[in-house]
Amino acid sequence: MDTSFKREPATGDGGRMASAAWGPPFILGLLTAILGLVALGASFLTSMVSIILFGALLAGSGIAEIISAFRVRKSGGPFWLYLLGGVLSTVVGVFVLAYPAAGLGALTLLLAGYFFASGLFHVVTSLMDRYAQWGWDFAYGAISILLGITIMSQWPISAVWLVGTLVGISILMRGIALMAGSLELRRAVRSFSS
Predict the structure, then answer these.
(1) Whole-structure pTM over 0.85, yes or no?
(2) Where exactly are the structural domains of the chain?
(3) What's the DSSP call for residue 89?
(4) Strand, coil or helix: what is 42?
(5) CA 80 to CA 165: how far, in whole Å?
(6) Per-residue pLDDT of the chain (194 residues; tens, 9 = 90+)
């Protein structure tokens, strides 16, 4: 009984199926990367769209939490926790929608504080523990502190570009990751079929 396995070359239908496996993710990644570049080019517009979307999601989740509060009330759940949390989320979301520029300024300050505090944490822990490769963590922390200070020193002007730039970079990196993953899939399909 012959149990040897012979691979057939990827021709015709097999080649099209292989292309269908990696082609659409590559095209999606390319379009996503282009969208990221456009978002970086129009960082103020991207910032405003992002903060409006954030406000709408916050208000929507607050309303859903209020509805959940009345549903759990019948079962003896944490009614007041859900109700007050939902009211807070809804009010903040509505304020962000009504005053997007103020919401953008507040979000920029929160991000600056996060970068500064996170960087300080990384610098202090890397210096105290001196674990393997601690220098990379120290460098990350120092850059993060510098970024936080720069954003705070340029506020409120930094509110115009920061959120849009971060969103644009995130979209661009996601597109590049999709393209890289699809090319790796293409390489694996080709090596299997040859």
Answers:
(1) no
(2) 35-98
(3) H
(4) coil
(5) 39
(6) 555 555 555 455 555 666 666 778 888 888 888 988 988 888 888 888 888 998 999 999 999 999 888 888 878 778 888 888 889 999 999 998 999 888 888 888 888 888 888 888 888 888 887 777 888 888 888 888 888 888 888 888 777 788 888 888 888 888 888 888 888 877 877 777 66
